[in-house]
Structures are given as structure tokens and as C-alpha cells.
Amino acid sequence: MPQETAVQIMRKRIALVTGASSGLGREFALQIDKLPEIDEIWLVARREERQIELSARLTKPARIFALDRANEESLAVIEEELEAQNPIMRLLVNNAGMGSPGPFEKTDISYNDQLLKLNVLALVRLTHISLPYCEAGSRILQISSVAAFIPQPNFSVYSASKAFVMYFSRSLHQELKPRKITVTSVCPNPMETEFFKHKENTRLIDRLKSKGTEKIEKVAAQALHRSARGKDMSVSCFSARLIRILAKILPQHLIIKIIGRMG
Ligand SMILES: NC(=O)c1ccc[n+]([C@@H]2O[C@H](COP(=O)([O-])OP(=O)(O)OC[C@H]3O[C@@H](n4cnc5c(N)ncnc54)[C@H](OP(=O)(O)O)[C@@H]3O)[C@@H](O)[C@H]2O)c1
User: Is 2 contained in some domain?
Assistant: First the structure.
């Protein structure tokens, strides 16, 4: 056996999931646990005890990173571990995200900073440091949102951050085709997770949820299925697909006006 192939076999094939302590990220970890192509799952979120509880439910070995992803030093911790372990990154799920609806003027300035660091900067950086460990067949799932399709008054920073994720992912998908790496932008409708928990603006939240909520099980399953098929988008809900089509057909200023009136 050629030496290079022997080294290749010894390298662990990992899946790295951010935001694994609750909601969609936790569900991704549970579903990825069933994939034969993965040897080890790396979990990233701030709440360590939640990740310990999750790892106990997994059949595959898990490595837990209790990190604040909005903090720049967190990236260095993951980077060092990647260098030390030299794994094959078969799956990267950039899922951690935050957002809270409300008028921009009334949003705390530091909250917006945190949001952009987590939803945008941390996602781009983790993608960048992961790519040297990806190979043909590796898959990257970037969790965007239905909010990416239309600019959303009263959810402006969040929807802009998710539009960024979608545009970035689709460009990267094309760019990485020669390396046979798939990048899938996942755009769920509102889901019943901790995302909207303990948030003010219940009227706005109810409006956002009025188009229907999605089950995390379906969102994760469809996203994994679509990425396995080499697709760059995963929109698992009918109403989200409809919004996406309308956003393509109708002039944007008209849609924003309608949404603004509804809010
Ligand atoms: N729920 C929805 O309605 C909805 C709809 C469309 C898209 N999405 C997107 O789906 C993704 C998952 O959200 P979810 O609904 O599952 O919400 P969730 O239950 O609130 O989960 C968010 C995850 O992100 C982690 N996280 C938050 N801030 C973090 C930080 N600074 N550093 C590290 N990890 C952090 C949380 O872990 P810790 O708190 O332990 O750090 C948690 O595991 C997000 O990107 C969200 O924008 C959600």
C-alpha cells in the first residue's frame, strides 16, 4: 500500500457542528451520528453541559468545544485542534446563529455587533480554516434562513446577515466545484427552538411564525440529503419556497412595503 494511502486511512473523518447545544444544531449532530462516513463529531457551543448530555446520546466519539464563537480567540482553539489532529473534514455545519426582531433604532448596539460576529464573521472564518482539511466529497452546510430572501424591516440586521450567508455560500459552492466540495445554503422557515425564547416583541415573532413553523428533524434531514446530492440550496418548507419565488418575481420595493405594512 502506498505510504500516502496508509496515512489517509488513519486520518479521522470528522463532522463539525456549531450551535450544537440546542435546536437545529443538536438535531444535525443526532442525524450525522447515523452517517457511516463520519468517525468523530466535533461539537461547538457555549453551554458545555448541554454538549456533554448530547455526546452521551451519540454512538460516535465526540469532541466538545465549549466556546463563545463571537469571541475571536475561539477560532484559534479550533484551528489548533485541527492542526493537532489533522482530520478530514467531511462535514462542516455552520449553524450557530442569533437574532431578535425589533426596530433597529431600539436594538442594543453591542447586540448587533455580537450578531454580526457570530452569524457572519465566525461563519466565514470557520469555513476558511476548515477548507485545508476538506477533500473531494466534503460538504459544508451554512445555515441561513428564509429571512435571506427578502429584506425584513424590524429584523433588518438579522435578515441582512442571513442574506450574506446565502450569497457567500452560493458563490463558494461554485468556486469549490473543481475540488468537488459542496456548499449548501440551508434556508428554514421559523422553527420551534430556543431561538425566539425569552425575546420581547411577541407580536413580531407571531407575525414571523404566521407563515408556518418547520420541524427541525425535517430541516436537518433535507439539508443533509440536498448536500449529499451536491445541491447549493436547501429550502424544505413550501411557504419558504413560495416566498423565494415571489422574491424573484415581484419588485423588491413592493415586497418590503407589504412586509412593512404587515409589521
Ligand atoms: N429558529 C428559527 O426560527 C430559525 C429560522 C431560520 C433560521 N434559523 C437559524 O438556524 C440556526 C440554529 O438556530 P436554532 O433555531 O436552533 O436556535 P437555538 O436553539 O437558539 O440554537 C442556537 C445555537 O447557537 C449557539 N450559539 C448562540 N450564540 C453563540 C455563541 N456566541 N457562540 C457559540 N455558540 C452560540 C447556541 O449555543 P449556546 O447558547 O450554548 O452557545 C445554540 O446551540 C441559526 O443560525 C438561526 O439563525 C433559525
Answer: no
- What length does the chain have? 263
Residue 19 CB less than 6 A away from ligand 1? yes
Q: Model pTM?
A: 0.94
In 3D space, the residue among 262, 220, 221, 212 whose CA is nearest the CA of residue 241 turns out to be: 212
d(CA 253, CA 83): 47
Residue 3 is assigned to a structural domain of this protein: no
Instruction: Please work out whether the CB of residue 101 comes within 6 Å of at least one atom of ligand 1.
Output: no
| Percent of the chain topping pLDDT 90 | 82
In a domain, 70, yes or no: yes
Q: Tell me, what DSSP letter sits at residue 28?
A: H
pLDDT tens-digit series, residues 95-136: 999 999 999 999 999 999 999 999 999 999 999 999 999 999
CA 237 – ligand 1 centroid, Å: 19
pLDDT tens for 176-186 read 999 999 999 99
**Number of domains within the chain:** 1
Across the beta sheet with 62-66, the strand order is: 62-66, 40-45, 13-18, 88-94, 139-143, 182-186, 233-234
Residue 224: which CATH number?
3.40.50.720
The C-alpha atoms of residue 67 and residue 45 are separated, in whole angstroms, by 6
Q: Is the CB of 21 under 6 A from ligand 1?
A: yes
d(CA 93, CA 127): 9
pLDDT of 27 > 80? The answer is: yes
